[in-house]
Design goal:
By secondary structure, the protein is α/β, with parallel strands linked by helices. It is built from 16 helices and 26 strands. Helix 8 links the parallel strand 12 and strand 13. Helix 4 packs across helix 9, helix 4 packs across helix 10 and helix 15 packs across helix 16.
Length: 522
């Protein structure tokens, strides 16, 4: 493709050379540049692509897009022949390299979103489950659906590893293009605040944008909650198609703020009076949810194997997006019913033990609170009590032992430190017993992270074990019949990152191993 087609109508400050050169690829990492690529120099969180322009040129870049003023770090610009790379490299200066990266990527892959129905889901919690619910609903409607999110990228049954919740612009547009060529008509994608702040999905034609909620997270990247919100708001205010629909959680304070800030079609959902779509008559048990959804003076009965009030909101958000796409209600109900649990999201682990084990991705204060609260509500249910009876004898009399919630959790390194003591307070306040351990310590000392968590503890109902595998073993040894054991923070992840190295590790596998060892020793 000619460079002039990629940059057509793009805002350019200055250009040296002819845009009539061929481009065979788009790169922002100089290590991945191939002969004939256009290299876009962007500033990352750790390194600045402007420092690697020379490397990109040595590898054969035919054009360089940059935003910083030309200085001694840039190579001299030799004269170009009229239409060829042999005469030199084309230099294009722009105001915003990331914006240019998104623009050029979209054009290079021939604007795939123009021929797809794209649904973007953003928010702190609930994105993954909402996208899987939507995928199930749309497939029940007979559609071929692609999915981009935290767990994996899915194209026609093919699963790709997901290094980012939302890929960088070239990978994102390449994925959309592959989905289109594979026969997908719809794409459901999680859209992270990082992706929005870094313009990874700019110029994508979104038909529906969903806002789940906003609670404290990523404040290592966003300076304040207001900055975090403004990043999320971009999806609705700047990127969503003018004909598109915003589906917004009315019960969330930031959701109501968003409603007041945007124009266009809005569909709200929630439990409170005033939402367009409301859940009523909610019945929550370990077997799942039974709810009625009121919408436009009609009531639709919905059943789901998902558990907990947080999943009521996820179901509402998915139903709202589906309604915006004109999916019939009988199909919506069928799609919700067919969707089973999502890997690492309130996932039950049964290895023959006489207590309940749940693995969950909860790694924010709000998610951890919801997780423990949901477990507490389940404990009250007759299903849990009858499944795991627990009694002791004292003085010749039979007494029912108080069932307990045991929570294992930690906090990630090189991330928002402010949430650590808050999560320590939540875990110790709401759980009966807590094992504080490591999550992904990354470059930080796990012991120091744990100290910051411990500073928020509300009572001395916890132990410390930095080794996560050993922490899980300790929790399994502590658990008795009828208890609920929660492993929070890592969910679907199959690694633990320590000092920049990813070690193979799965909460589920570690839990199953610990239960088997306990069974052998009984």
């Amino acid at each position: 493709m000619k460079l002039k087609m990629l940059i057509k109508d793009m805002e350019i400050k200055e250009m040296t050379g002819s845009a009539d050169v061929d481009v065979i690829g788009v790169a922002y990492d100089s290590r991945k540049v191939k002969q004939g690529d256009v290299f876009i120099a962007v500033k990352g969180e750790k390194v600045d692509g402007h420092s690697f322009i020379n490397d990109a040129i040595k590898k054969g870049a035919s054009a360089v897009v940059y935003e910083k003023a030309v200085s001694s770090q840039y190579p001299p610009q030799p004269p170009l022949s009229k239409g060829g790379i042999e005469g030199g490299v084309v230099f294009i200066r722009v105001n915003d390299s990331r914006k240019a990266l998104a623009y050029i990527s979209n054009n290079f892959y021939e604007r795939p979103s123009d021929e797809l129905a794209i649904i973007g889901v953003t928010g702190t919690n609930g994105k993954t489950t909402t996208t899987y619910l939507l995928k199930s609903i749309l497939e029940a409607w007979g559609k071929e659906v692609g999915l981009i999110g935290t767990i994996s990228y899915i194209v026609k049954g093919r699963h790709y590893d997901a290094p980012h919740t939302t890929p960088e612009a070239p990978e994102f547009q390449a994925m959309l293009s592959e989905m289109l060529l594979s026969g997908c008509s719809h794409v459901v994608t999680e859209v992270s605040s990082h992706a929005l702040a870094q313009r990874r999905v700019d110029y994508t034609n979104f038909d529906v944008a969903v806002f789940t909620n906003l609670t404290r997270d990523h404040l290592d990247f966003h300076a304040t909650m207001e900055d975090y919100f403004r990043a999320k708001e971009r999806l609705f205010k700047e990127i969503l198609s003018k004909e598109g629909t915003s589906v917004i959680n009315y019960d969330d304070v930031w959701g109501r703020k968003l409603i007041g800030d945007i124009s266009g079609k809005v569909l709200t959902y929630g439990l409170e009076t005033g939402a367009d779509m409301a859940a009523v008559n909610i019945k929550d048990s370990f077997e799942g949810l039974v709810i009625d959804i009121k919408f436009r003076d009609r009531v639709h009965g919905v059943k789901s194997s998902l558990i907990g009030m947080h999943n009521v909101y996820n179901i509402l958000s998915a139903a709202g997006a589906a309604v915006s796409l004109n999916v019939p209600w009988d199909v919506i109900i069928d799609g919700i019913r067919k969707m089973s649990s999502v890997k690492g999201r309130f996932e039950k682990v049964d290895a023959g033990q006489d207590f309940l084990c749940i693995v969950d991705y909860a790694h924010t204060e709000d998610a951890l609170e919801r997780l423990i609260y949901t477990a507490r509500e389940l404990m009250k249910s007759s299903e849990v009590r009858s499944q795991s009876p627990s009694a002791t004898r004292r003085g010749g009399k039979s007494e029912v032992r108080q069932q307990r919630i045991i929570t294992v959790f930690g906090c990630g390194g090189n991330r928002d430190k402010g949430k650590r003591p808050i999560m320590g307070k939540i875990a110790t306040s709401l759980s009966d017993y807590v094992v504080i351990t490591s999550d992904n310590p990354r470059d930080e000392d796990p012991v120091e992270i744990i100290k910051e968590i411990e500073a928020g503890a509300s009572r001395r109902n916890y132990v410390i074990e930095p080794d996560r595998r050993e922490a899980i073993r300790k929790a399994v040894k502590l658990a008795e019949a009828g208890d609920i054991l929660l492993l929070a923070g890592k969910g679907h992840e199959d690694y633990q990152e320590i000092k920049g190295i990813r070690h193979k590790f799965s909460d589920r596998e570690a839990l199953e191993d610990a239960i088997r060892d306990r069974t052998k020793n009984v």
